[in-house]
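Sample pair:
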Amino acid sequence: MILDLFSLAGKVALVTGATRGIGLGVAQALAEVGAHVILSSRMPKPDVMASLQAAGHKVSYIAADMEDPVAPAQLVADATALHGRLDILVNNAGIAYHGDTHSFAEADYRRLMDVNVDAVFKTCQAALGPMRLQKSGVILNIGSISGFVSNIPQPQAAYNASKAAVHMLTKSLASDYASEGIRANAIAPGYIDTDMTASGFANPEWSPIWKAMTPLPMVGTPRDIGAAAVYLCSEASRYVTGEVLVVDGGYTTR
């Protein structure tokens, strides 16, 4: 049956930045289709874990600060040790800064790249170890429409560059490791209702433009990204690799 292709029963998935927003939406969706999901974030959120466990989901938690250059490798090692394998890696942890390029602070630029690019690369690099031994695995990176377009009205060249890097990393991994049974794809969300976008939606200048630029008359939710993640992490997409799936309500059509 076609629905069986979306099942992740018996699979082990690691999701970074997983205790809120898009990361939590993805973690919950993967758990709902049977995966044992290892959630990771900088700060533990026992209430989130308790809620997932109360719903009957198979979940574990490992704390990791992705600004720490050694955290990605340690996180993957710890996650793999829990069940002896790692079938799915979802790189969701990320940060966003806005600001004019001519005055963008060096410290903000460095932190942005450390988390959005370097940590993603290092976590993928670490995950390739167990996945190559298994001759199977799925890497899913969370990019952004900002990796394709220059959003308006807010200036954010550094953030846009970081997400474009994630997209190209994804395509390169897909090409390099397809012969070893490893697929790599990305999701490029548009404006999703999360803590990260809350200030933007509250901004009287930004919010009307964001909404006017989005053809579908609604704001996306973490659940929308979670549904896309289930597809890209399951056998339903077994012939899909190197793709960046845009989930943006049509924003990039304008």
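The chain has one domain: 2-245.
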